[in-house]
Amino acid sequence: MTATECPYTLDPVGSDLHGESAKLREQGPTQVRLPGGVVVWSLNSHAAIQQVLTDRRVTKSARNHWAEFRDGKIPPDWELISWIAMDNMVTSFGSDHRRLRRLVASAFTTRRTESMRPRIGELVTELIDGLATTPPGAVVDLRETFAYPLPARLVADMIGMSEEARAATSKVIDMMVDTTVTPEQAAGVLQGWRGAMTDLIEEKRRNPAADITSDLLASRDEDGSRLTELELMDTVFAILGAGSETTINFFDNAISALLSHPDQLAAVQAGEVTWADVIDETLRVESPLAHLPLRYAVEDIEVEGVTIRQGEALLVNYSAVGRDPALNGETACEFDVRRENKEHLSFGHGPHYCLGAGIARAVATEGLSRLFGRFPQMRLATDEPLQPLPTFIMNGHRKLPVILEPGPN
After folding, report:
1. Which residues cross the membrane (predicted)?
2. Residues near 227 by Cβ (< 8 Å), separated by ≥ 6?
3. pLDDT by residue (tens digit) across 279-320?
4. pLDDT tens across 47-100, in order?
5. Residue 2 lies in a domain
6. Is position 253 within any domain?
């Protein structure tokens, strides 16, 4: 890739996310081509991304501010349509965003985080006990058997979704983050998850319970307004997808990083550094979310000397932030739990900061500490590089093969 290749076609399978990000960062804000030939601005530096995340002239509402979407140039079967067609606090703007965030925030209280701790412990115990039955020396895909089910089942519990419904919906989420899907598949994804959310919401209307979906059904803003049916449906799905998919990849990245740096794992196990250090360093160097579609310029803005015109779309690359040498120097790409500055934006920044960050940290701490406490001699089962997921949206691996080598009970 060279500076003359503009717009550069983003690798749809994310085969080298970090290498591609570094090359794009060198060019400053630059245009890239997404699936379907859609051209957007790509942002890959800490300074540029932090600027747009807090700039009120930047929005996530395609229906209000993306010229191509409003003009009908983005087809309903565009490969990334699910990311921009939602109607929830993630894709709202101005007063609508503030209203929706207040309504959703009421379901993510400190009290709820604390109330989830026993369930987190139960799930971790169940999954680790299952892993402990693995025959000695056998290879286990820890992504499939631990990293995936722990957050997926926890978030399903939080929104009140049955295990059967969760398993079916997980296939839709997997397709949503797969940036190699066909237009036909993309259209099916949007219909599929909205159908699943409709069923869940109707069930909670009939049988409300102590879960987020029931809370959102009952919540009212200070002016008495409530979530519309579409806002409710898309909000519940956003919680399910964001809460599970990002945490799955976090566990995948944290475990693989520690197993690839046994000296640092030893420091954690010896209490020289904390699991909080592991969490933040993993989020810094291997953000589970890579490129998040999309944001839009409400008016002309200047980013690092480049003018982005009103109505143009921006693609923020979270996986590039912590690796920016301007922020973390020459060692920015190295995993180092002893690093003093672990600044990252993996939970977002500004008005879209993740409401579930507290719960995510709680499950990360419990999951990692218990897993490595039970299997202190665990090691990777391959010397080959782990294969990335076929996506430029998420940052994780197809499989995480390990040999557990359980310690004494």
Report:
1. none
2. 100, 103, 216, 219, 235
3. 999 999 999 999 999 999 999 999 999 999 999 999 999 999
4. 999 999 999 999 999 999 999 999 999 998 898 988 888 877 778 777 777 887
5. no
6. yes
Cis amide linkage into residue 232, ω under 30° from 0: no
Q: Is the pLDDT score of 195 beyond 90?
A: no
Q: Are 108 and 89 in contact (CB under 8 A)?
A: no
CATH of the domain at 342: 1.10.630.10
Q: How many domains does the chain contain in total?
A: 1
Q: Where are the alpha helices (DSSP H) in 10-137?
A: 17-26, 46-54, 62-65, 67-70, 81-84, 94-105, 110-131
Cα dihedral value 2, 398, 358, 116, nearest 10: 170
- Residue 334, token pair as written in the block: 């190295």
Cα→Cα distances 91→47, 178, 325, 337, 357, Å = 23, 20, 31, 34, 19
Q: Supply the pTM of this predicted model.
A: 0.92
Q: Is residue 408 part of a domain?
A: no
The most distant pair of C-alpha atoms in the chain lies apart, rounded to whole Å, by 64
Flag whether 409 is in a domain.
no
